[in-house]
Design brief:
The chain is of the alpha+beta class and 240 residues long. The chain contains two helices and twelve strands; from the N terminus they run αββββββββββββα. Strands 1, 2, 3, 4, 5, 6, 7, 8, 9, 10, 11 and 12 form a twelve-stranded antiparallel β-sheet that branches. The chain is globular, with a radius of gyration of 22 Å.
């Protein structure tokens, strides 16, 4: 009976590991200050004011289990993880659900966008330079808001491997030249209105793997179960 109990615990941990590999979420986080930019319409509570010197932060989640992926090698080596309604009619690509849930925060105000139209993690390496780029974009082609967050690092890590990879630990801007931009525009009746545009200096940029809540639950239950088994075994040995 005790062996059966231990085997069941180990199975829970194995199931959690398999679930994590099959439903991997990549979290892109960045923070820094604004180099140049203006809040034209008060999106961040600063209507008509300069954004220079304002602190900002950004977070986006990319669900790799529901994303498309491709890699090409000529003339540059490029890997791209993508999703959103923009890719629903691409020949040979299944309809892709939203790739990213993202939020940009500045001056205590947050602009959240789902990336339901377009989301992208991109890595490019070419002759004489390395370049990584991560972007989230939300755009209604029939008219509406066009919101884009772009982060790039030069002399970076090169192309991403296949979907399901574990991102490298640490700050992607460490020892590299990093740039970023954030913008919100509105298209109404053919007219383009700028709400916010900012050139950003990232202090930190990280990619991390984020286990699904269900995966965490299985993992915690499995290890708790193993701990209980070891405790029972220890009590039995003490009693004997």
């Amino acid at each position: 009976m005790q062996k059966f109990f231990a085997a069941a615990c180990a199975a829970l941990v194995t199931m959690a590991s398999a679930s994590s590999a099959g439903a991997l979420t990549i979290r892109l986080q960045a923070s820094g200050v604004v180099d140049l930019g203006q809040d034209d319409t008060g999106v961040f509570g600063l209507a008509g004011q300069s954004l220079i010197g304002q602190a900002w932060s950004f977070v986006a989640d990319f669900d790799l289990s529901h994303a498309g992926y491709y890699s090409i090698s000529t003339p540059f080596v490029q890997s791209q993880i993508y999703g959103g309604a923009a890719f629903d009619n691409v020949v040979g690509v299944a309809p892709a659900p939203a790739l990213a849930q993202a939020a940009f925060t500045l001056n205590g105000h947050t602009w959240a966008f789902g990336g339901s139209w377009y989301g992208l993690l991109n890595a490019l390496i070419g002759p004489g330079f390395d370049f990584d780029q991560q972007a989230v974009r939300e755009f209604d082609p029939a008219g509406g808001f066009d919101t884009t967050m772009l982060l790039s690092q030069e002399d970076s890590l090169g192309p991403f491997p296949l979907v399901g990879y574990i991102p490298p630990a640490g700050d992607l801007c460490d020892g590299r030249l990093c740039r970023a931009q954030f913008s919100i525009h509105e298209r109404t009746n053919g007219q383009l209105t700028s709400h916010v545009f900012a050139s950003l200096t990232p202090f930190t940029t990280t990619l991390t793997a984020v286990p699904e809540p269900a995966t965490w639950g299985l993992m915690i239950l499995g290890f708790g179960c193993i701990g209980a088994t070891l405790r029972r075994r220890q009590l039995k040995l003490t009693a004997g």
